[in-house]
Amino acid sequence: MIKTTLLSLAESPLVLIITAAIAMTVAALFIPVVLRISRSCNLTDKPGPRKVHILAVPRLGGVGIFVAFSISYSLMINGFDAQAAYFSAALLMLFFTGITDDLIHLPARKKLIVQVIASLVVIILADIRFTSLHGFLGIYSISPWISVPLTLFVMIVIINALNLIDGIDGLAASLSLTSLAALGFWFWSRGMTENAVVAAAMAGALIVFLYFNMSKGYNKIFMGDSGSLVLGFVISVLVIRFNEVNAQPATVNALRSAPAVSIAILIIPLFDTLRVVIVRLIRGQNPFRADKRHIHHLILRAGFSHRQGTLILSLFQAATITLAFVFDSLGIITLSVIMLAVCYGLTLVLTVRVRKRIRTVTMIPGSRPGDHQYRITHLLTEAGKKKVLNL
Fold this sequence. Notes:
This protein has a domain at 2-256. The N and C termini lie far apart (62 Å). The protein contains 15 helices and 6 strands. A hairpin with an 8-residue loop joins strand 5 (363-365) and strand 6. It has helices at residues 2-8, 14-40, 61-77, 84-104, 108-125, 144-165, 171-189, 193-213, 224-247, 258-265, 267-282, 295-301, 306-326, 332-357, 382-389, and strands at 44-45, 57-58, 132-136, 139-141, 363-365, 374-376. Strands 1-2 form a two-stranded antiparallel ribbon. The relative contact order is 0.12. The chain is 67% helix and 5% strand.
């Protein structure tokens, strides 16, 4: 009876509201439990040279996200998606890898191996992969020999881009919410309820997590790898399906520049990863070595707080997504170049702001508990300026 009712609501936004509400309820009940356990067992993220927080904070928020998403998704997806089993199996692999890393730390190589295996599960067994380049460089249909490695590469990039952008309070969750909102609404407007349900379930879990992540004191919690790996995987699957739907001739009002719109949907994590890797390579450094060159570090050096930085970058991504949909007719290459230029402009503005601030002063982490901003102290030498900019 209930299953029949849910299926009858497939074209109604009510099914998405119910999905998000279930995820929010589970997250609201489960995250406080994770907080208590984390603090009692001292499972916290300690301050360090590459950290922007100054107090120990529980880092298992991803457990709450995963549980809330899984329960909501499992209850609401039945009857909508025949590939749910493979998707869930791959998700479990990444979750347990993430939580293991949060607890005892795993080498990057081992995490990458699991990411590859999990991605191949949905690529090969569920057949979730790119089959077209949408006319990019005049290429449309592509063979499995190109499709599989291309899809694998894109999934690994998205998973790790979201992992890397998780550097200040609320940023990864807020950026993901803008991406999920865009994808979820588009899928629902095209009658693809199974994908809209996935987006709604994850969005519901993230909304509650965001409340705790942005809190101060006892209720504060970080996402950790158990959350970022799962989040990146979910969004990567939705992005692939988004492109594939638009590649089908039967799709009404298909987007001309779907790949470029996909980039816009994740513009901040993708651009930041690209920029940081290029800078490291230019300077002869290991492109996978962690540092403080990410855009969220830059925005803190520019004088913004965590909340201000998260709000600025989230609004920027939301605006870019909107513009990408509006100017879809420009074509893949033109639209992509414009978006990259706009992102470079944002980075340039932030860099100029930082340079102005360090002409006569330096900035060090604030000494007050909970204050993660940078405050003015004393005169700065040229060497000190470079150190602050981390150039």
